Write the structure tokens for this entry.
Amino acid sequence: MVTSTLPAGSQLSGNVVLYAQPEPLSLELHGKLGMNRVDKPWGFAANTHFVPLTVTEFAPAALSYPIIFAGAERQPIAVMGISDGQNLFIDAAGDIKPEAYLPAYIRRYPFVLANDDVQQRMVVCIDRSAKAMGENADVPFFENGEPSDYLKQCIDFCQNFDVERARTESFVQLIKDLDLFESRKAFYNPPVATVGTEPEQVLIAEYFAVSEEKLNALPVEKLVELRDNGALAQIYAHLISLLGWDKLIALALTQQNQPVAGNA
């Protein structure tokens, strides 16, 4: 169940990366609020280089970013930069490179669902610090005391995202159960400052990836099962995406007006 009000005694939990000031949406507190139309609305993500992905996004995201798995939960992540505070695809003005895939995690902003642990329900929250949000805005959250069509669409998007998040957790658990994960590191070679000197490799990321060796060693019947349930296609999208490390490094060095030299 999803609600837009927060009952007394509730306690919220959930991951709200990118959300500086999340708070439960309610008619009483936010009845006059809405979103203004902005040509370049993505500036809130300009300082993040890791963005969570759902498994159904692997194929389109693989054309733009390396897709890695991070942390104990093996969270799938799109790598959008090679250093903290750097997004190579979204700039501070809120513009995104036209060829880049925009993850659903970013597209749902400023809305997010949070767990109400006491009431055992999902609560719709907003990032109150969103710059495009304001009173008497172009697109209101509420009309005549009821959620507007815009708000209903945003809630539907968040609910669909949550379904995909659960599907992603099941996919990751499947990879864990098959023991297909391996740890990896990505490096790049900085430009040579002096002729005759060897550049020192710089570590970009330590992450988890699917092991091609372990994947190829699976029994044929297991590979057929992975193919039939769609997991194999998502695994290959992830593996292909890892070829994008050099492209990412080249983009970073180009933006720094430096010659490109990299490997991962």
Notes: The chain has a mean pLDDT of 89.
